[in-house]
Amino acid sequence: MATPTTSPAPRTLVGSRARRRRETAIGRFFLACALVSVAITAFIIYTVLAQAIEFLLAIDLSQLVAPGWFPRRGMFDVATLIIGTLIVTLIAMLIAAPVGVLSAIYLSEYATPRVRGIVKPVLEVLAGIPSVVLGFFALTFINPAIIQSLVPGAKGFNLASAAIAVGILTIPLIASIAEDAMRAVPHALREASYGLGARRVTTATRVVLPAAVSGIVAAIILGVSRAVGETMVVAIAAGASGGSLRSWNPFESGQTMTAAMAALATGSDQVAGNNAAFQSLFFVGLVLFVFTLLLNVVGDSFVRRVRQAY
Amino acid sequence: MASQSATSIAVQRSLARQRRDATGLAFSILLLLAMLLTLVILVVLLVDQVTRAIPVFQERGVDFLTSGLSSNPANAGVFQGLVGSIVMGMLVAVLCFPLGILTAVYLEEYAGDNLLTRFIDINIRNLAGVPSIVYGLLGLTVFVAFFAALGFPNNGRNIIAGAVTLTALILPIVIITSSEALRSVPKTLREGGYGVGASRWEVTRQLVLPAARPGILTGTILALARALGETAPLLLAGAILGTFSTSGSLQDLFTGPYTVLPMTVYDWARKPQEEFRALTSAAIVVLLVLTLSFNTLAILLRNRYQKRW
């Protein structure tokens, strides 16, 4: 995006002054449009940071360590939310990473154009399903049909079923980034491999996969970021709207950072006013923002490495 | 397709004849299973929701679409959500498309390779990865607060504030996909334009944008579908959970309380009554018809106009 795709029009041929002035004005207007996105970032950082700091100043810092996350009772144990987020992300990635990467290998190395023409839209339709829908699916199908039949003691709302649905949501993203990375591997590498008598499986796993490894790492990192930021699935399927105790058990109800924010926004006593529970929303938002920002920056640098290599 | 090249096929054929390739076979089966899993999940999800929804549609028919929210499952419908989603979609399209496409035009056609451009570029890439609920915080403290400060009714929690929030959310996606579409237009087309004396704007408007139109359209429609399915930011940015009533006037539509389809789904999904389970599925089917038709449109557009320069 940063490199200009055209060379500028030659100076002596740009024509009348009025025409040139109009050109400059148009350019400035477009720049103003581009700066809107910068303003959005500035607003996000400012509001989240300002309110988060106000929250930290308003509470006793010892309130940040408690047996659980119960914002209405003044227990702001962020560790509870981070553990919940880790559980959901880990289980989601156990599903999404292998399925996504294998789908990518299939699409890039095995599928004929005709099969690709069918499979690709299926992934895109899956990517287009709103997360509320998958949340309800997790609650009414994944949990009773899979989780509770495998783990008899599992609760009606639990982190594991939410995590599976988050994994499903993440598959298309991982598949599409990983596939792009593998398709960017030059054909000469494959031809050379076949020329040496390698089988298709050897070429795919020993030649293409290592060549595209930074793209695949990027796909997984960006997938993690997506899973960490997913809200509605966990809000619907994992329960714990009022708060939850610190726990590592995925078969109990629980909360992630995002779900805790959604719960604060939808609780029976609607978020309003200037109390600490309301401002904890911004504190959690800040933690979440920093988390995903780091993941995205790292992920993006891997994506760029692929582009530079070939 | 690499695997389709003549050399590789010939080599594989000759090699395969000599001995059975067990590893290769196992690996292809594994890949196929991964693909099938995705397909099965999608089919199970759709069939599950549709079968749950069918009784509601049989019993209620169009009434389900035209009746409003209610705490009584027997006459609750998705009318406000449907209207809200349609109005929201139009507002987001009007706000987001010009802004996003012009930003992409600036970055690809006008900007030089300097520090500012790189900064804007990095900024947009990072913005695209910010979780949607964080945009809700932005909507609540900036856009809703703005309308509240102007003295709008309902504390500024109106559909315009919601639309601005969703615009901020999908703007980076629109910019990135539009930029990609513009970048795929060959340089020679532009050089030709300059060669006959066209200015930068004339080249952009008459040559580059028309050539990039299918790509831009696909990206923007997909982004709009994403906006229509979003719930989390609107939870904070003022959409109503639960029932409410409006006078139905045009002014109320834009400044009064509002909700959108995914909010209705979320609201009903949380209700303990068994009757609301079926209603939730019915609302999901309506929501899926709306968002997936946008998705399908985008995919069809892309397949129709896919061009190799």
CATH topology (fold) name of the largest domain in chain B: MetI-like fold
The count of domains of chain A is: 2
Alpha carbon gap, first and last residue of chain B: 17 Å
**Number of helices, where a helix is a run of at least 4 consecutive DSSP H or I residues of chain A:** 11
Into which percent range does the helicity of residues of chain B fall? over 70%
Quaternary status of these chains? heterodimer
Return residue spans of chain A where pLDDT drops below 50 for at least 5 consecutive residues.
Answer: none
Broad CATH class of the largest domain in chain B: Mainly Alpha
Please give the number of β-strands of chain B: 0
Residue-averaged pLDDT of chain A: 87
Give the low-confidence spans of chain B: none
Name given to the CATH architecture of the largest domain in chain A = Orthogonal Bundle
Describe the protein in words.
The complex is a heterodimer of chains A (310) and B (309). Chain A is an all-alpha fold and 310 residues long. In chain A, a hairpin with a 4-residue loop joins strand 1 and strand 2 (75-76). Chain A has helices spanning 17-58, 78-110, 113-127, 131-150, 159-183, 187-195, 200-211, 213-229, 232-237, 257-266, 276-309; strands at residues 68-70, 75-76, 244-245. The longest helix of chain A has 42 residues, at 17-58. The model of chain A has no long low-confidence stretch (mean pLDDT 87). Chain A folds into two domains: 18-58; 63-309, MetI-like (MetI-like fold). Chain B is an all-alpha fold. Chain B folds into two domains: 2-60, no CATH class; 65-305, MetI-like fold (Orthogonal Bundle), CATH 1.10.3720. In chain B, helix 2 (22-60) crosses helix 13 (275-305), helix 4 packs across helix 12 (261-269) and helix 5 crosses helix 7. The longest helix of chain B has 39 residues, at 22-60. Chain B is flat and about 65 Å long. The model of chain B has no long low-confidence stretch (mean pLDDT 88). Chains A and B meet through helix 1, helix 2, helix 3, helix 4 and helix 6 of A and helix 1, helix 2, helix 4, helix 5 and helix 6 of B.
